[in-house]
# Entry
Amino acid sequence: MIIKLPNYLKPDKSKSPLHRLFNYYFAVFLPLTALLLTIILNEPFLSTPLLIFFPIVVISTYVGGLIAGIITSILSAMILILYFPPITNYNSLLYGERIFQFILYLVESIFLSYLVEFLKKRDRVSEFKKHEKELNKKIIELDEINLNLQKEIRSRDEFLSIASHELKTPLTSMLLQTQTALHNIRNVSVARFSFESLLKMLESVENQTKRLSKMINDLLAVSVLTVGNLQLEPEDIDLNELVKGVLTDFEARIEKEKYILNFDPKDKIIGFWDKIRIEQAVSNFISNAIKYGEHKPIEIKTSKSKNHAIFSIKDQGIGISKQKQKMIFELFQRAVTPEQYKGLGVGLYITQKIIQTHQGSVEVDSNPGKGSEFKMKLPLKISQG
# Structure
């Protein structure tokens, strides 16, 4: 027959054997010390030795655990029955009373040991539960961080795939056009040489170079914004004149893609901003509207409200669902697939960061199939420091 001890009677395996041995020696040492003290002190402790023996049971249990407390209880009970008071002659009635006292004290001291151990473990359980809550909270936080990291890794891998394709396409086209031009110059006679075809090739190379340059600039802007090192060089700027200048750069593209773009500015709107960065933000908004506007009219408006300037651009294109409207401002995120529309998915991210650095805000109002309206709100003067 195998007798299994309950868990609270099993030795604490978290403690070393030397530590447990010390606890047992301590359990023996305490009652012997108590005996010595009661003999030395004599009165009043000799007549009421429980004043010392009950406290040593508590101390032994608290320091050494339940088993140490039981050992101390048994030893102190034996000391009490043998030495207090000293037995001078044999008396069966006296011995019966002493045995009853021994049993009573032993039961009381063991119960006291259980009570001390119970209270001690209850405090430990409360402490463990507190630590458990803290650990569970940290686990949840780590899980969230892990999910975000996995999401960022997937976005990065997708971005690298898109970027490698997008960067390779203009390079391949430029190389092909250059090789064709060189072949014609070297092998075609002057009489058959066409300056018109050469001009078209060079124009194509120029367009591909601009496209490649824009993608590289976007990637550089992302790297600067990601580490938070965007430095502004603000100056007094007329927002309407800035928008006109950006639209001039888009004239050829607007004409080529047969867009009607309406912009009728009124009074000047002077703000203290970084001209190059605001031009970049406005350019990204216009480029976005042209890309997704499905060749329908685009309307641009500017206005001033108290201490803020407002720029809005509205297209009548594919629109954006409510679920994806927040996502489009995240890095490498797009509301469309790469197969539908080419791009790196960094334009709106860059735009939002530029506007936020100017202490402004950006919002979008859109419905699928009904177009999109982007609004940029900028303080007329950004606070320094």
User: Anything to note?
Assistant: Confidence is low (pLDDT under 50) at residues 1-11. Residues 92-187 form the longest helix (96 residues). Strands lie at 235-238, 261-263, 270-273, 298-305, 308-314, 361-366, 372-379.
